[in-house]
Structure formats: structure tokens, C-alpha cells
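User: Could you write out the 3D structure of this protein bound to flavin-adenine dinucleotide? I've included everything you need below.
Assistant: Certainly. Input first, then the structure.
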Amino acid sequence: MKTDVFIGGGGIGGLTLALKLARRGFDVVLAERMAVRSPTYKGELLQPKSMQIFDGLDVYDAICDRSNEIKVLDMLELSSTLKVKDQSFMDYSVLPGKYNAAYMIHHEELKTIIRKSACEYDNFHYLKGTACKGYTENTAILQKGAEKFEVEAKFFFGAEGRSSVTRKAMEIEVKQTTYNHHFLTVTFPRAENFTDGKIISTYNRFLGLFPLPDNQVRSVYLIPPGDYKTLKEKPISHFHKLYTDLAPAVDGYVQRLADWKKIQLMIPVMYHAESYVKGNKAIIGDAAHAVHPMAGEGMNMAIQDADVLGELAADMLAEEKTDTANLAWYEKVRYRRADHVIQLSHLAALAYSFPYRPVSYLRQRTFERMEEDPILHFKQMLNVSGLGLWKENVRDRFIQGGFMPVRAKELTEGTKELKYYKPEDDYPWKVEGLI
Ligand SMILES: Cc1cc2nc3c(=O)[nH]c(=O)nc-3n(C[C@H](O)[C@H](O)[C@H](O)COP(=O)(O)OP(=O)(O)OC[C@H]3O[C@@H](n4cnc5c(N)ncnc54)[C@H](O)[C@@H]3O)c2cc1C
């Protein structure tokens, strides 16, 4: 078998990359080792930049139709008697333009939308139940059941997630950071009018609630490492109470979980490969980096990697400039952005990692200040959205810490838009030229 581009892994990253390339008319072979839908929970929150990318791929409407739009994340800090002490908001509508909301969608359903769209192109070949086992110099070695075969390609892109075969073939090691907490995660029914995201915390507890379509809500509940096994030995009513204590809004709904079977353990990790490209190979998404799920960024990073690498590879093929040195553009654009998001997610994780009252007080104060100061609020939402990057400076930190007064002045839409990435930031080789 011979193709232009081989992609290992049919998760969100691999499928988005395939759709981009297929639409540009290039031959793509994608091997996905799973033959059926994955039963594990994965990322489900789409940030504004991902929606902008999906708009460009003509799947925006299909995704909106099957999502719950989230304009606001409601951050509640509770006292030890579980009374609301403080409430602040992360509001996507501070972002000017069309992409000013996040969207919650069932992970497997998003994959189906992208895969179906890619399958409309005859030049896309989806090999399900087929694992990538490794590489020779110009072929990927694949296995389906007992059958082994090879695919010859110009480029080989690894989108196989955390245990990437392509990353191993590129001899790139990753050093994993773990956290002092794990999460329980599960989806269950919700009230129809419960549509905004909620993050509810006390000094030693954390519950995130992210409404999905079909009146369902995805939840994450922080637990100490090792507690999953002992928790599962308790009656399910114990789990219900952990949730209803913090979120009365789920009372009457969480109880529909009748046993522990659907409640999964999620172990957060962080790593960043030292490079994304080697010769005719590149890695994207979780193969290249993993972030703590607190900021809801993992899947979005995979989509954004796919967008840049897909555009680059398509331009290289279209201009017949297939010198692999050009692949460095992908790393040049994405590495710094990904690094910032990894740090952002890490900081958000640390804010909930220490079960002490002074930490809870500091967190509450930081969120209050972020909401009151229009520049801080915009920076936070911009950086989370992926639409642009505007790093916090020393003055911002002083304001956040309460050592300087908040700024009253609102930013104009024009000033805000100046901070958005422009096409030449996303695809600089189109201006500077390929070799
Ligand atoms: C268990 C888990 C839970 C998560 N939960 C959350 C969450 O709650 N919130 C959040 O924001 N993020 C979460 N994430 C992160 C987010 O889901 C990922 O960042 C995102 O899915 C990355 O997409 P990807 O396409 O890079 O990789 P993946 O989604 O991991 O997709 C990789 C695909 O490659 C396939 N594959 C693997 N090896 C091979 C091979 N050798 N050959 C062929 N195919 C192969 C896999 O079957 C899979 O379909 C979670 C991740 C994991 C692993």
C-alpha cells in the first residue's frame, strides 16, 4: 500500500489531521487499533480555537448541533459548613467575535462527526482494528489480527496518544510528572436548565461539573491517590453524598448511578516531549504532550497541533517542497504555545492540590481579582481559548495578589482582537516560504 501521509491513531488529533489533508486532496491512510468505540472517558470540552478550526473544516454546525454551549464557568468556593463563601465567573463572552463560547460534546460522538466527514473523500483510507507496530525507513508496519502489512508514505505522523509507537520510533523520551491527587469521573443525567459549567471547592474538596447535551453532565471529583479502591467498597450512596454535599443541583440526578461500574479513575499526568519532529516523522496531541485536565485543554491541543501540521504538510505536498526540514515549522509554531498551556494547566492544578485553608483563601482572592480586573479576565479567557496568547506580567501578578488595585478600564474590541493569532502566526511559512 502506498500513500502521501500515514497517520497512526484515530483519536481526535489523528482524525482532525486526516480530515484536513483529505480535504486538500492528498492520499491519507489512518490506522486505528480499536475496532469499537472506546469505553473510557476522555476530553469533551472544546475551546474557541478548536471551534474556529472546525469551522474551517465545515464541521462546526454538526458539532454545535450535538453540543452544549458553555458561556460561563461558575467558580464556587464553599465554607467548611458547605455554605457559598465566594462566587466568581470565567466568562467566554469577554472574547470578541464568533468564537466566544466553549462546547461540551460526547468524545466518541465528536470522533464520529470528524471521521464521517473525512470518509466522504475517496482519498481517505480508514483502517480500523489495525495497529501500527513500528517503522522501517519509508514504511509503517501494521497489523490487523494475524495479518501483517506495510504502508509506504512520504510522511508518518504519530497520533497514538500517550503510548505512541511513532514517538518511540523517533527515540524521543518523555519524563512524566504526576500529581498528589486522582479524580473520579463519570457522566450522569442533569436538570434541563443546568447548562453552565461549575467548579465547586472547599479548602479540601473539588467537584467539576460540565454539562453535556442530552441533559447529561460530566463530572470530575478529586480524591487522594489510592482512595479509589477503598471508595468502591462503600455503598454507592456514599458517592452520591460526596456530590450532593457540594452541589445540591445534582440531587435527584446523581442517584441514577446505581453502582460503581461507570465511575472511572482518572490519573492526571504532565509531560512535554523535547521535540515533535524527526526526519519524515512528527507527533501530535497526547503523543507529544499531556496536560493536567483542570483547564480542559488536552483534546484542544491535539486539534490545534493537527491544524498546523495538516496545513503545513498539505502546503509541502501542493508545492512539491517535501524536504523534511520544512516540518520544523510545525514545531516552531506549536511548541511555545503548548508549553504555555501546559504551565497554565499545571498552575490551575496546583491551586487545588493542597488541602489547606490559606490556599483556599488565596485561590478565592485570585479568582475574585481576575473577575474584577477586565485585563486579567481577558488574558485568562484568551489564553484558555487558544485564540491568542497574552502572558501575565508582574503588574498582573501584583493585582492578583491584592498588592495593587484592580484596573477599571475596559479593553476595546479592537485592542482585544490585536491579541488574536492571525493566519500568518498560525501558518508563518505561507509568508516566509518553504525550502
Ligand atoms: C484516560 C484519559 C482520560 C482523559 N480525560 C480527560 C478529561 O476528562 N478532560 C480533558 O480535557 N482531557 C482528558 N484527557 C485528555 C484528552 O482526552 C486527550 O488529550 C486527547 O484525547 C488527545 O487526543 P489524541 O488524539 O492525541 O490521543 P487519543 O485520544 O489518546 O487517541 C489516540 C488514538 O490512537 C489509538 N492508538 C494507540 N496506539 C495505537 C497504535 N499503535 N496503532 C494504531 N492506533 C493506536 C488509540 O486507540 C486512540 O484511538 C484524557 C486522556 C486519557 C488518556
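Residues 8-14, 31-34, 40-43, 45, 131-132, 159-162, 165, 185, 266, 285-287, 293, 296, 298-299, 302 surround flavin-adenine dinucleotide (CB under 6 Å).
User: Perfect, thank you.
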